[in-house]
Amino acid sequence: MNRIVKIAVAALASAGLLASVAACGNGQSTSSNESGTINVVASVNQWGTLAKELGGKNVDVTSIVHTTNVDPHDYEPTTADVAKLQKAQVIVVNGADYDAWAVKAAKSTKATVINAAEAGGVKEGDNPHVWFSAAVRKAAAKAITKAYEQADSSKKSDFEKLNQQWQNEENEVESKIADVRKKANGLNYAATESVAYYLAEDMGLKDVTPTGYAQASANESEPTASDITQYIQALKSGGVDLLVVNTQEESNMTKKLTDAAESASVPEIKLTEQMPGQYDSLTDWMSALVDSFSKAI
How far is CA 114 from CA 87, 199, 272, in A? Predict the structure, then answer.
């Protein structure tokens, strides 16, 4: 068992909160809040906002990680976090080993669990930042709507309407992506972290991040001095058209890369791994990011 989840589960067990659900599987729950809404818990806010948009007034959504100041990879859930998951009717997790603590904890609940990565055909070991993928967003939205319809079939038509409204917004984002793809025409980019890999791929951009650096970043280890030198040379030589910077993970090392990009007049796209608070929906955030890429190109 994951060390982080062991800590959270042990804390709950000592309080006697898990005793009544220890034998429960991952089945469907038909109960609802006193208000008649469906109780939904998402591991991270990018999926939580999607869950809210698809459920409207019919759902009560809580996102456990909801700030850019927290890294979900290393997040240690509190006793209260796991208790929220235990009470949920629908749980939305990212999967692909991004939020293993939530995936593990969800298995002991009665909730219907939506794993966004699995819904979109992304496996563990693949790039876990799947909310940047148009295909995964659509697959996750379909799965969430189905879960809502199962939880409260009397509101099926409402859920279908909300799903269509969301789909219209997603189609606008994908139209923007298609326009950028035409402009990009196979331009190269490099990244300080591969968080926007799927979005860049959707826009037809080619990832030329130096292999040594990319592997070190993926393994959460420090790139070697040689890796950094190779990266800086790539920026200065004109082999990189765009630099994508994850501002949640800035350091002296990434500053060397951004300084090199600025000296070589390589445009920078600055973004965060978690959805910033100024956006009301996942599609709003994606639309703004696509605009940033379009402007840079």
Answer: 15, 22, 24
